[in-house]
Amino acid sequence: MTATSPEGVDPVRLVSTSPVALIEIDNPPVNATSQAVRAGLLAAIQEVGRNPQIEAVVIACAGKTFVAGADIREFGQTPREPHLPDVINAIEACSKPVVAAIQGTALGGGCEIALACHARVAEPGASLGLPEVKLGLVPGAGGTQRLPRLIGLEAALDLVTSGRPVKAQEALRLGLVDRISSGDLRQDATELARELIGQPLRRTGERSVVAMDAETASAKAAEIRKKARGAEAPGKAAELVLLAAGLPLQDGMARERETFLDLRCSEQSAALRHAFFAEREVMRLPGLDSVEPRRVQKVGIVGAGTMGSGIAIAFADAGFDVRIVETSEQALTAGQARVADVYDKQVASGRITAAARDERLRAIGYAIGTSSLSDRDLVIEAVFEDLEVKRALFRDLDAVLPPGTILATNTSYLDISLIADATSRPADVVGLHFFSPAHVMRLLEIVRTDATAADVVATGLALAKRLRKIPVVCRVCDGFVGNRILSRYRQQAEYLLEEGALPHEVDAALEAFGFPMGPFAVSDLAGLDINWARRKRLAPTRDPRERYVDIADRLCEAGRFGRKTGAGWYRYEGGKREVDPVVTALVEESSQRRGLTRRAISADEIQSRIRAAIVNEACKILDERIVERPLDVDVVMMHGYGYPAWRGGPLFEADRVGLQSILAQVQERAAQDGPGWEPADSLINRAASGAKFYP
Ligand code: 3H9
User: What is the model's pTM?
Assistant: First the structure.
């Protein structure tokens, strides 16, 4: 028997073999529980209950993955029957054993289906999780109530409030799955189903949960809310999980459903759904659909510093053959130690096995001089940020590398066209701007010059997918998308200092906004010297009428480069960030020199001025066609600069806040701050016409 989807295919099939039947869900691409799947699953489980030939059933999925959750595209619509909680309750209530056969990912509603089955078998590579909080939701089909019944309150709190998926081995250890398949998943699940025939049914919802003492529970909930930095779903999810210890399943599920439906209509959830689809949309660049990427397997990295070694690790993790080159044995050995250190830490924390570390270490070779890169498909430079150094290197690489090899630069600010012009093949040159630490941060800016070939850009996108990074394609300008916007709002943050705020007040306001760290704390972490070099480079071309704050220059002149020197915008004792009276004095002295009377500045003013600076610069970036779409900016800011994803990125949020009020703020700044702060044309036009970034 089957149920038919609107497209006319059958997303759920019941194969009535005796004694163990099979329910197969087949709803590409990820077997999401769309209405047709829910209806098909309910009908199939009812038939299992009725059919005397069937004594047990396995629920399995076609394709690469088990059910990856509810259909996110249906969230903006009115829910249609049958609802997932009812379908899942029917599975649990089935009078015959039901076993889930899990491959790929069992996420959200998919994990909830598995939780309601009477047993679970997973492939060794499978993972299970409840990622709803990442969409601004709580699990809405029993997840918050069944998971603690299966794995206990503490572990359930961790998984539900973080959205973190667990791999099969960890799931087995937690009691989330019963067995790991040793070969044929469906056969193993069928075997387990056969064993369960005639046994008392193991209904998760009938289990009890050991309670947590009230004090620990409220401390945990408070910690979770703090860590969420303004996102509301994790705190609500924690409350629901804790309810499982005191309420019968159906009462807990009723509370869960109410919260789920409430959050589904929330602004935060809409923003996080926007973020989810934008992360995927950046991959699809107009005009590149039919362009074939070049083949890349052998990668060369020039420079074994922090960036170079991080990039090497990112490629080794993704299965590439990597070779790092340096100019001296000493630099090479230091790089090798840096790479080994990262992997050793990953082994120590249990993230990878010692065998995986050894395999990845073997994938990275080391050599002196660029001549050893002649067999590479792609070479990325991560050397000192100096135009002439990079041009000389590219000239050298041009002579060594065979035709077709892609030459990439990891520069964060420099003009890539000028670097490309140093070679005889500017079409093969591209910017691959990784963010530090390169093996952790997911954002990758792919910077194309006017000469970059389309298949080189397509290769950048294909590489990003293999590296599991989120790529944003942009054109050349100083700082590209992210650093250009960052420079602007850092500048505005420094104006706030001169007018009356102190670094920790600006940081606190922006952390309350949802950034993981404020700009001054970030600057201390990254090192003040990098930007100092940039300011010195730009000094000759700076508009003399521009409002310029020199506090950062003075800090650098005093050797205060941030954490690495023990002092920057803050001082660090024992690694702890502390307000430094020396900086306070420097800030106050700067105000005095400018003839500014210091005043108290509210967190609200700090936040809205910074937001306006970001939105205005983003509009200029769009006007100059540095990127094609507003979503490109949102993705850069969320994944590279900590703009809170629950706000959906600056341009998604700007639609909410209202472009007229942002324009008014920008106009006020332009009047106060002068050149560089003029409103962008598109901001003026949109505010006047009422057009939105996301209509
Ligand atoms: C939930 O379940 C609520 C319940 O508790 C309660 C309900 C009552 N829906 O990522 P990919 C699309 S909330 C619709 O590129 P991968 C995706 O847009 C849900 N579409 O592949 C893309 O489409 P396109 C909880 C979805 O292999 C295509 O599938 N679940 C959904 O790198 C391929 O995706 C989640 O949050 C969906 N649920 O990664 C899981 N999922 O080709 C979210 C994917 O047109 N999904 N699509 O761009 C993921 O984490 C990843 O997609 C997954 C595959 C790991 C599954």
Answer: 0.93
